[in-house]
Amino acid sequence: MQFKSTRGKVAGKGFVDTLLMGLADDGGLMVPERIPAVTDQTLASWRGLDYISLFLEIFALYVGDDIPREDLRAMAERSYGRFRDPQVTPLVRVKDGLHVLELFHGPTFAFKDVALQFMGELYSYVAQRQGEIIHILGATSGDTGAAAIEGVRGKEGIRICILHPHQKVSRVQELQMTTVDDANVLNLSVKGNFDDCQRVIKELFADLDFKSGHHLRAINSINFLRILAQTVYYFYAYLRLDEQARAGKVDFSVPSGNFGNIFSGYLAKRMGLPVHKLIIATNENNILEQFVKTGVYRSGDFRSTHSPSMDIQVASNFERYLYYLTGEDAVKTAAYMQTFHKDGEIVIEGEELAQVQRDFAALGVGNARCLETIADFKTQHDYLLDPHSACGVAAAEACGGTGETVITFATAHPAKFDEAIKLCEIEQEIPEPIQELFAKSQHQVVVDYDKAFIVRQLEAFYNGVNLVGGTEAHE
Ligand SMILES: Cc1ncc(COP(=O)(O)O)c(C=O)c1O
Ligand SMILES: N[C@@H](CCOP(=O)(O)O)C(=O)O
């Protein structure tokens, strides 16, 4: 399988080159040259496969000869062997027509572990096999950073720098990232929001001299590997439904921010998974809801909510969807993206908007509704949702119903967001690995939202020099 860019100026790249490129060199995002088809017959033959076997079947469609299957299997076994549930992403039936897919059984208690545990293994493999220097640069609203750091901490040949918005992540998310004391990890706590962090790293990846000079590699969902690894659990969840549910319509409700998780669902559907509707659940940062309802994609004012990982205005994967919406028209996609950068909005109309509304339903869940959903779900089903997953359930309740079965994603463990759970007057048991974080010391550099200063920090770190001093260092 070969990969190409949504902006049309990069093509013919293999799987490993696509992994290493991250953001496409023409500023677009990498996608497969053709989406492989999974026939009904193949899908039926996958029924009963365990998670890793299913993962290998799906990856085989994309990896080509780049990595031998036994090497992929060994990496997948190490990655998913660290999950607390043997099913990796168990599907829990809550009531008739409603299932929760639990994606939080990995080391950092969020869905990001599913792709990032494997990505850490893969980067390490490539570093050893190709003698590659891997300098990871990523932005996080809390969960990607923790999962990526956990995936590569202490690994030879790899350094990782993560930017997170200062004091805009939950306490546990901050501790997960900053209590790691391996020398190959740098946390920059940026006085700004997640969009600011993401903007800086996208600019640095788009600067090809800087990118190649510093061997920059991406762990965010701009990297196609993230998208692919996340498609596996859509197939897994569907195949775990009973026959009757599979015979009906199946919707997925997906707590969304950067549009990576739901884009994986879109890809799975294009591959042939019989998905009826993809429901985009956002919080008060509801640019995606507005887009689905009106065709206008415009970032608004940033809002801090109970679901901080979804406090995102500019969704980086939106471009991948636009590419398919325009019928894989790279020129039109590039023009849309240029308009967005110039005018701050994109307007979709006519048949394209009708297609958006066939593909997706959407709901932006307000803060009060998020907390009510947590409390009600606990009372009615004795199931504690984290605030992101609660947005998913609220959206499933509001927008589902056209499907006969909704699978709603639990994207994080509630213990990561005890601030919100306490507001619902619910006491939860905190798992030991999270409790232990509170006794550890933190390492982070607090920096202004100042690209030049951030670049100096990065250069020092990637050159193996001691840090040049942030406004506040090593708490
Ligand atoms: C817990 C949680 N839920 C949902 C999301 C949104 O996922 P995505 O950015 O892939 O849309 C995130 C962050 O990405 C998250 O950390
Ligand atoms: N919510 C994310 C934001 C980054 O998203 P990604 O999927 O592009 O890595 C986070 O937790 O960091």
UniProtKB/TrEMBL annotation:
Record EC number: 4.2.3.1
Organism: Paenibacillus sabuli
Name assigned to this protein: Threonine synthase
Reactions catalysed according to its record: O-phospho-L-homoserine + H2O = L-threonine + phosphate
Domain Threonine synthase N-terminal: 2-80
InterPro entries, A to Z: Ser/Thr_deHydtase_PyrdxlP-BS, Thr_synth_N, Thr_synth_N_sf, Thr_synthase-like, Threonine_Synthase, TrpB-like_PALP, TrpB-like_PALP_sf
Pathway: Amino-acid biosynthesis; L-threonine biosynthesis; L-threonine from L-aspartate: step 5/5
Family: Belongs to the threonine synthase family.
